[in-house]
Write a structure and sequence with these properties.
By secondary structure, the protein is mainly β. 13% of the residues lie in helices and 48% in strands. The protein has one domain: Immunoglobulin-like (Sandwich).
Length: 124
């Protein structure tokens, strides 16, 4: 009987302290030369890396067991602009479904005598 009570108590307390959420996402290519195997997805909170993953060959990825809070999601690949999504709110037992087009579009600034520059979401 004590074993059953202990098990029930442990299960209830474990569920109370493990309040987590999940992110599921799909990345679509804007550049036909982009290969998903070179992408890196990073979840940050207050500038610190919390989790990371890579997408499958179709651009799908998931991040599981994310504690409640506000996060930034960054998609990166060398030679491309970063895609940053700020203020993702993760709540208890929440699943967020996202869709991205990568690399993100940019605004070009033209200055006479210089090459056009991409501004906004640029890692350069």
């Amino acid at each position: 009987m004590k074993l059953i009570i202990a098990f029930v108590f442990f299960t209830i307390s474990f569920n109370t302290f493990c309040q987590t959420g999940q992110i599921n996402a799909q990345i679509k290519r804007q550049d036909s030369l982009l290969e998903f195997k070179y992408l890196v997805i990073v979840l940050k909170q207050s500038g610190s890396i919390i989790k990371g993953t890579v997408p499958d060959t179709y651009g799908h990825f998931s991040l599981n067991n994310i504690a409640e809070g506000f996060y930034s999601l960054v998609i990166q690949q060398i030679g491309y602009r970063d895609y940053v999504t700020d203020s993702l709110k993760i709540s208890n037992d929440t699943t967020i479904d996202l869709n991205f087009i990568y690399p993100p579009p940019c605004k070009f600034v033209y200055i006479k005598g210089q090459k056009p520059k991409c501004i906004g979401s640029s890692s350069f």
